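Please review this one:
***
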Amino acid sequence: MDQQSIATVILLGLFLLLMFLRVPIAFALGLASLATAAYLDIPTLVIAHRMVNGLNSFTFLAVPFFILAGQIMGEGGISDRLVRFADTLVGRMRGGLAQANIVSSTMFGGISGSSVADIASVGSFLIPSMIRRGYRPSYSVAVTITSSVQGVLIPPSQNMIYFALAAGGLPLEKLFLAGYLPGIILGGALMLLCWVLAVRQGHPSGERYGFREAIRVGLDASIGLFTIVIIIGGIILGIFTATESAAVATVYALIITRFVYRSMPLSKLLSVLKKSLATLATVVAIIMTSSGFAFLLSYLKIPSSLADMILSMSSSPIIAMLAINVLLLVLGMLMDMGILILLLTPMLLPIAVQLGIDPIHFGVIMMINLGIGLCTPPVGTSLMIGCAIGEVSIEKTLKDLVPFYIVMLIVLMLVTFLPLLTLWLPGMLD
C-alpha cells in the first residue's frame, strides 16, 4: 500500500479500535488524529491549531446557552406544564395521552433542542403515566422516543448547530427555520398513526378539562412557551441572530423559573449550572478533536474518494440520495448522532451539493436520518433511556416500534425528494 492508504487505515482503523475498546469518543478521535499526523510527519502544532480553530466560531456560542436554557426549562418545571397543556388540547381523543405525548414533545423539543433531554424530562413523567392508564410499557416507550426525534428538527436544535459548524458556517437562522415544517409533519404523521392504533387496539381516552381549567392551564404554560417566540420571532424579525437568541432565551428561562414559577431555588440553580458545565465540557472536547480528525480526512482526500464511490453507483441523483440515506441510517444505528454529524458532514455535504441538493436541505435530511438512529439499536441513545424509564426490554419495544419506523421513513422520503418542505420557511429570510 502507498503512504496515503496506510495513513487512512491508521486514522479510521485506530479510531474504530478505540471505540470498540470503549475509549471515550474525544480521546479516540484525538489519539487517532495524533497517530496519523505522526505517521505523515505533520507537525503536532498544526493539529492543535485545527482543534482550537474548530471552536473559533460565533455560531458555537449558541451551544452553551441552549444547553443551559434546556436544563433550566427541564429542572424548572416547564416540561410538566407543557405536558398538562398538551393534555388539554388532545387528551380527550381516543388514545389521548399518546397524542398529548407527541404534542408535548413538539413543544418541549422546540425549547430543549435535544431528543435525549426531551425523553429524560417529558418521558420520565409521561411513560409511567401512560402505563398507569393501561398502555403497554413497550408502546409507551415507542411513542415517547419517536416523538422526541422532533427535538433534533424543531429549533433550537443543538445538532443543527453542530451541522452548521461542520459545514463551515452555514447560516444558523435558516437551518433553524428549515427544520420547523418537517418537524411538524413528523409529529402530525405520528399522531395519525397513534389514532389508528388507538382505534384498532382500544386505547383509552384521556382526561377531559373544563373550559376554565383549560384556559388556566394554557395561560400557565404560555409563559414558558414564549421562549419559542423569543427564539424564532426574534430571528425572523431580525431583532437578533440565532446565537443572540440563545442568550436571551437563557436569561428569560432563568427569570421565569426563578421569580414567576418559583420552581428554581438557589440550590437547584447551582445543580443546573454544574450539569450544564459537564455537558458543555464534553461537547467542547468532541468538537475540538473532531475538527482535527476532519482535517486529516480532507488531507487524505477521503471525502472525494467516498464521493466517487457513491456517484459511480448510478448517474441518477435519486439513486445517489437513496444510497446516502441508507448510509446515514446504518451509521446512525452504530454511533452517536453528534459525532456522526461532525465527522460525516465534511464528507457527504460536497456530494450532496454536487447532486444539486441545497446545503440547508441536506442538513435536515441528515437530522431525520440520524434522529431515526437515536431510536434504533444497538447504540440508539433515546431507545436506551426510554426502555430504562419504562422498565421494558429493547426486544419487546422493537415490536411496537415497527409501524413508527415505517412512518418516520415515509417522512424522510418526503423531505428528501420534496425540498420545498424544507426550504420554504428559510426562503422568507432572503
